[in-house]
Amino acid sequence: MQMLQDIHEILSTHDLLAEFQPIVDLRTGHIFGHEGLIRGPKGTALESPLSLLGAARQAGRGGELERLCVRILWERFQSLGLPGMLFLNLSLPALCAKDEHGSRTPAYLSALGMDPRRIVIELTEDQTVSCYRRARRVVSLCRLRGFAIGIDDLGAGYSSLRLWLELAPEYVKVDMAFVRGADKDDKRLEFLRSVQKIAATFGTKVIAEGIESEAEYDAVRRLGLPYGQGYFIGRPSASPAASIRAA
To answer: With contact defined as beta carbons under 8 Å apart, do 159 and 128 qualify?
Structure first.
C-alpha cells in the first residue's frame, strides 16, 4: 500500500532523476547520441527503474509514468545542451495507449515540442505484444511525425526478432549478453556478425550494448557495427561529460 502511495506522490511531484548514457559512433569515436534513463527518489525502494515502473503498473498508472519520464528526459536533455540523438525508452503498450483526452503517445510527444529529427523511440520488451497490427499503425504515426524507431535488447525479450520483422526499426540494440566477452568468444562474434547482415538487409543500424572493456570495443568495431554503448564508453550520469573515454 505504501509503495502505491509513493507512486501517486512521485507522479504528483515529478520527483524523478534524469540520467544520460552516451552512444558512440564506432567509426569516428564521437558521440552519436544519448540514451535517457530515469531513476526514482534516491535511497528509496523505487530508485530502481524496474521497481519504479513495476509499482506504477501495479497502481494502474504505468503509461502515465512513462509519458512523464520522456517529458522530464527531453526537458533535461535540452537544458544540458547535449549533442546528437536522444533515445527514449517506451513500452509498446504505453506507446499505443490513449490518455484521458483520447490522445495517443505520438501526439503527446509532438505536443512537448520535441525535435523529432533528434528522437529515437526505443521500444522496450518487458511485456508481451498482443497486437502487431496496432503496433504497426502506431509506429507509422510516429514516423509521420518524424520520429525514428528503435528496439531495445535484441535477443533478450519475448519477441524482439518478430518486432524487428514487423516494425522495421531504424535502430536495434543488441543485448549486452551477446556483447560481453565477444572479443574471446567466436559464437558471440558470429551472432553479432549475423545481426549485422540482417541489419544491412533491412536498412537498420545496430548498436552494441554493454561494452565494458577496450577489447570488446575493438571487437565490435572490427565487425563493422556502427554504434556502441556501455560502461567503457561512459556510465549513466545526470551531467554527462563533454568527452568520452572511447574518443
So the answer is: yes
SS3 category, 209: coil
Instruction: Tell me how crowded residue 124 is: count the other CB atoms within 10 A of its CB.
Output: 18
For Cα atoms 186, 191, 194, give the angle at the middle one, nearest 5 degrees. 125
Confidence of residue 247 (pLDDT cuts 50, 70, 90): very low
pLDDT single digits (tens) 189-235: 999 999 999 999 999 999 999 999 999 999 999 999 999 999 999 99
What is the average pLDDT score of the chain?
90
Residue 158, pLDDT above cutoff 60:
no
- Whole-angstrom distance, CA of residue 92 vs CA of residue 76: 24
For residue 237, the 8-state DSSP code is B
Cell of 44: 528509496
Q: Of all helices (H) and strands (E), which one includes residue 247?
A: none
* Cell numbers placing 22: 552516451
Instruction: Specify the residue for cell string 495517443.
Output: 104
Q: Catalogue the long-range contacts made by 110-115 (C-beta closer than 8 Å, 24 or more residues apart).
A: 110/145, 112/70, 112/71, 112/74, 114/74
State the Cα–Cα distance between residues 26 and 233, nearest whole angstrom: 10
Task: Report the alpha-carbon distance of residue 144 to residue 197 in Å, rounded.
Answer: 28
Domains and their CATH numbers in the chain:
2-229 (3.20.20.450)
- The residues with which 20 forms a beta bridge, in sequence order, are 36, 237
For residue 176, the SS3 value is helix
SS (H, E, C) 32-48: EEEEEEEECCCCCCCCC
pLDDT band at 241 (very low <50, low <70, confident <90, very high): confident
Rounded to a whole number of angstroms, the CA Rg of the chain reads 18
d(CA 234, CA 236): 7
